[in-house]
Amino acid sequence: MLNDTIANAERELYLTLLTLAQEKPSAYEWLKQLPTWLGDIKDKANYAHAPAYQASVARLPNLTVNSVDLNSDTLTIEANLSESQRKQTTALLKQLMPWRKGPFQIGGQIGDDESGIKIDTEWHSDWKWQRVAPHLGTLKGRRVLDVGGGSGYHGWRMAGAGADTVIIIDPSCLFYHQFMAIRHFVGTADAHETGRYRTHYIPVPLEALPASSDQGSQLFDTVFSMGVLYHRQSPFEHLQQLKGQLVKGGELVLETLVIEGDTNTVLVPHDRYAQMNNVYFLPSVAALIGWLEKAGFTDVRCVDVAVTSTEEQRKTEWMTYHSLADFLDSNDATKTVEGYPAPMRATIIAKK
Ligand SMILES: Nc1ncnc2c1ncn2[C@@H]1O[C@H](C[S@+](CC[C@H]([NH3+])C(=O)[O-])CC(=O)[O-])[C@@H](O)[C@H]1O
């Protein structure tokens, strides 16, 4: 038996895609695959922890929510929490650790995390949003895809910025259930006047999505890919897949690790990079702009470059494993433990 939160979220996703299909028949291709996608993520043969994650979400208490602020940096669900609800909720949310992307606050009031439960995540994802948001074309009324959306933090912020529909995709079983835990408390606070949810999550990688090359059949006005490109073995395929989801004239927001250098500079770490064993291509900003142009995007511009600090990515009570400070050279913070340049990230905006 599915718990109500996940069942409701999945029903809302079906209804949203069904409505969309009336305008964009390519959404039927998504609908055809949805039962498999949503079934696979709950199958303990694929994900041993899936039943435990589902049970944690199912046992979250129903709080009286006073208001939800999707625009606050600490994404806050203002609610009354009794002491026993606080203990129960904290324990259940901790079963969904490690929490990497956030922060979130459940209970209490905005700006007063003493009175609620503050999920102090490994990443200050709000800092990334502050770097990206001022450069975006409006999200108001747009259909948005967030590729590799993690817990969904940025997806909620996109809904808060007025997007009509946000679809977050990410293949992680844990992050899917973290999203559902937050969805449980957000309830209908992100919904349209019709009651239809605006923020959805499909637990699949970008490569699994149906790609339509037919003019006019693409679903999204804005596509985000933040923190994903360097994990891909074939960066050009990733760029083409992103392009394949965008309407003509739509906006791509690409954020990835970069290094210093000119149009010909690309680092391919031999083994690990900052202890990650799945890092492939780190271009310079100039090379990355060249890649996007070669992939057929126009108006390509870099809007931000930032070195990741150990304040932005760090170990917390909600993510107790090693974090950035452990991945940097203890004698020289400008280098990773492997001797590569320390993580620096660029945000690029481009048009299809
Ligand atoms: N092929 C794929 N398709 C979709 N998602 C993928 C794929 N491969 C990995 N992921 C997912 O991409 C996310 C990368 S984190 C960025 C999170 C957020 N966007 C952020 O910008 O903070 C990296 C970082 O820490 O920056 C993870 O959640 C993966 O499961």
From TrEMBL:
The keyword Cell membrane does not apply. It holds the Pfam family Methyltransf_9. CDD domains: AdoMet_MTases. One of its GO terms (molecular function) is transferase activity. Its EC number is 2.5.1.-. The keyword tRNA processing applies. InterPro entries: CmoB, Mo5U34_MeTrfas-like, SAM-dependent_MTases_sf. Carboxy-S-adenosyl-L-methionine binds at K101, W123, K128, G148, D170, P171, S172, L206, E207, M226, Y230, R345. It is an enzyme of class 2 (transferase). SUPFAM superfamilies: S-adenosyl-L-methionine-dependent methyltransferases (SSF53335). Keywords: Transferase, tRNA processing. It comes from the Bacteria. Belongs to the class I-like SAM-binding methyltransferase superfamily. CmoB family. Homotetramer. Catalyzes carboxymethyl transfer from carboxy-S-adenosyl-L-methionine (Cx-SAM) to 5-hydroxyuridine (ho5U) to form 5-carboxymethoxyuridine (cmo5U) at position 34 in tRNAs. PANTHER family: METHYLTRANSFERASE (PTHR43464), TRNA U34 CARBOXYMETHYLTRANSFERASE (PTHR43464:SF95). This is tRNA U34 carboxymethyltransferase. The lineage of its organism: Bacteria, Pseudomonadati, Pseudomonadota, Gammaproteobacteria, Moraxellales.
